Amino acid sequence: MAHTNYRVTDKGYYGDFGGAYIPEMLYPNIEELRNNYLNIIAQPDFQAEFQSLLKDYVGRPSPLYLAKRLSEKYGATIYLKREDLNHTGAHKINNTIGQILLAEKLGKKRIIAETGAGQHGVATATVCALKGLECVIYMGEVDIERQAPNVARMKMMGATVVPATSGSKTLKDATNEAMRDWINNPVDTHYIIGSVVGPHPYPEMVSRFQSIISEETKKQLIEHTGSPSPDYVLACVGGGSNAMGMFYHFLDDEHVKLIAAEAAGLGVNSGHSAATSVLGKEGVLHGSRTILMQTEDGQVIEPYSISAGLDYPGIGPQHAHLHKTKRVEYVSITDAEAMDASLLLSKMEGIIPAIESAHALAQLEKMTFKGDEIVVVCLSGRGDKDLNTFMKYFNL
Amino acid sequence: MNRLKQLFDKKDKDILSVYFTAGYPTLDATLKIAEELQNAGADFLEIGFPYSDPLADGPVIQKSSEVAIANGMTLKVLFEQLKSLREKIHIPVLLMGYANPMIQYGVKEFCKKAAEVGVDGVIVPDLPMYEYEELYKDDFIDNGLSNVFLVTPQTSEERIKKIDGLSSGFIYLLSSSSTTGKALNVSDEIGIYYQRVKDMNLKNPLIIGFGISDQKSFERANQYANGAIVGSAFVKTLTDKDDYLSHIPTFVKAIKG
User: Fold this and answer.
1) What is the SS3 string spanning A27-61?
2) Which residues in B lie closer than 8 A to residue A176 (C-beta atoms)?
3) What integer pLDDT is reported at residue A341 of this predicted model?
4) Which of residues 137-196 of B touch A (CB under 8 A)?
5) Which of A228, A272, A275, B19 could form a disulfide with A332 if both were Cys (CB 3.0 to 4.6 A apart)?
6) Chain A residue set in contact with B, beta carbons under 8 Å
7) Cβ contacts of residue A9 below 8 Å, gap of 6+?
């Protein structure tokens, strides 16, 4: 039987999606990366430093925690992959560590990045401080106001935070500004994209750096259950980097059911949503062919979610492919469902999740289990950054 | 016969092309500006179709795109407006914009419509050679449309040759690796780069763009190329909704000298 291929081709495609839809000005930068990233990542000294930083600086492996009370409530064996315990509080650091080492090998002196809620900005500022490299973070003017503590964190670590004042002044515009910076600084600068989006090889490169999540999970599952294959794996999707990391080593294991939770905001059809797989159409966004929310005329629609990390009008090209081939089931979770799930995990397990991750947890409420099924949920980040939102929402 | 080719057969230096965004500053400005530019002495025109996320553009063209979209400009509206393009405009006209609106419209249909209304070529900065060749080349060729690619100071000689092979019309030589509307790079290095490309004796004419804003930069570009494109510097003069046409003759005259 023909086996569907979920991996990237040498031209940078996942089925119909991916590629590098970039202006010529970015071609040399992208080509330099494409020609070198696999070789550099494979080098023993790169691997040695990468693994040692993941262990001693990030605190990996992150625990696979059996959530007993949650398991009892839902009638399944539920494990949480604790990416929230990483240094800086989310999975984002796995990718920035990988890319900063890559940038160093490529001889780059200056780092730029985009950020929405500020988690990727903080993770980038962190590794720049670690390596003593200049760091410029683009962040939508609106987000700078909404996420003041993360702006302060970046500044403390020496980063320059530049407000993106174009368009809707949020994540997609910060991404545009970072790409414009890269166009204007093509030689000495590396752009650390924070998700599995952008032109090839970014989606593949970021997936590989995040794939440590599923690599560890498989080993930890053997210790816990004797088998590396759970019945279900759940993760939330904005651009989709924690989900790609969480799914990566399960993709070819077809009897592991993979579920990705998108942000439905106030409701999929409310006009205030970020449920790209339902509302989006095929097109080109930020350098790759994927599914994105857009008008009939091809103008990008500004998405909405209570969680700033899922507030992106597209999904990574590999997600678009996994959606089209139905390898992964994409579900929509509203703000209210995610907020309830945040409170539930806090009360039942003593873990306050990021609102992003709570979208994956909320899906448990909608599933029925046979009792002995094994479920892994990626707890991609901690909820400290969301305290203001929680305080307002729950009147705390 | 393609009007671009006719132009380049007739004229091989000091060619002036002007870019402006369709639907800016008012929705119905498109053809009025085109006519005024032709009368003022522009040799060919690039009409931009706006996109919400124009990542190769600087603030001036970003802003014009934003306003044009708010004015109601879409590809459908633009093709409707361009139905009467050839009643008054006889110089070559290219459409310039980003891949996504074109893909939503349908590339085949886009090319057909463009040819129908008398458009001569298309510039899509974020449509790379590989995807053009694999997916869309036939649509362009079947409709007699030139496709114009960009070359930057960082583009390798091998790639320039490949671009020359795939291009018809001209090669859009960028004055530097930058977004639109930045001041022109006048270092010696840039002269060396222009000369290097000129010495390759490519089959396509060379037109220099990005950073051309006055007579001095226009003349300098023409030392190496067949002509130059003015974009942001022109769009900047169009902000007054009630009087955007009257400055056009003086602007063009100031550039051409």
Assistant:
1) HHHHHHHHHHHHHHHHCHHHHHHHHHHHHHHHCCC
2) 53-55
3) 98
4) 149-152, 154-156, 159, 174, 177-179, 182
5) A275
6) 11, 19-25, 27-28, 166-167, 172-173, 176, 179-180, 183-184, 186-187, 281-287, 292, 294, 296-300
7) none
CB contact at 8 A, B118 and B85: yes
pLDDT digits (tens, 9 = 90+) for A171-208: 899 999 999 999 999 889 999 999 999 999 999 999 99
Domain boundaries, chain A: 23-53+92-206, 59-90+211-394
CA distance B248 to chain A (A): 27
**Closest CA–CA distance from residue A297 to any residue of chain B (Å):** 6
- CB-closest option in B66, B131, B151 to A19: B131
Q: How many residues does chain B have?
A: 257
ipTM at complex level:
0.94
- Given a cut of 70, is residue A355 above it in pLDDT? yes
User: Across the interface, do B103 and A186 touch by the CB < 8 Å criterion?
Assistant: no
Decide: A114 and A138 in contact? Cβ < 8 Å: yes
Classified by CATH at the fold level, domain A23-53+92-206 comes out as Rossmann fold (3.40.50)
State the pTM of this model: 0.96
Per-residue pLDDT reduced to its tens digit, A215-248: 999 999 999 999 999 999 999 999 999 999 999 9
Contacting residues of A for B69, CB less than 8 Å apart: 299
Fold adopted by B3-256: TIM Barrel (3.20.20)
pLDDT of A2 reads 45
Please give the share of chain A, as a percent, with pLDDT higher than 90. Answer: 92
Domains of chain B, residue spans: 3-256
Report how far residue A176's alpha carbon sits from residue A182's, in angstroms, rounded to the nearest whole number: 10
